[in-house]
Amino acid sequence: MSYDRFVDDRLLTSRDVLNKKQIKMKLIDIDESARDFSQRFGNRILVRKVLLTIKQTDTEEIEEKELDVEELEKRVRKERLFSSSNRWISKHEIKNGYIVASKHLDLLASAIALDIIQF
Fold first, then answer.
1. For labelling alongside 48, which of 6, 27, 28, 35 has CA 20 to 30 A away?
2. Which string of b and e fits 60-75 if b means at least 16 CB within 10 Å?
């Protein structure tokens, strides 16, 4: 593997405050028909589904959840009258099919608000 294609695992893994959980997000589905009309943010894609891998660091237990980010955003709009999620992700923030850790909170905001994911 060449050095330019190497992706450090720390770039893809986000952690909670007490470092008890580690999270990785794999991109499963994107919206092909969506167009990004704002060019100032670069070339972006609209995320539909992600595979969330949560690892408990103390017990080494791994849990996987498939999240439909589009459905969560619709549910938040219906129940709470707002949407805190931003599903647009730059193509540079996807490495080997995984979303970089700096964008995890943006995609998980609706799931956290609806108590689907708890930290």
1. 6
2. eeeeeeebebbebbeb
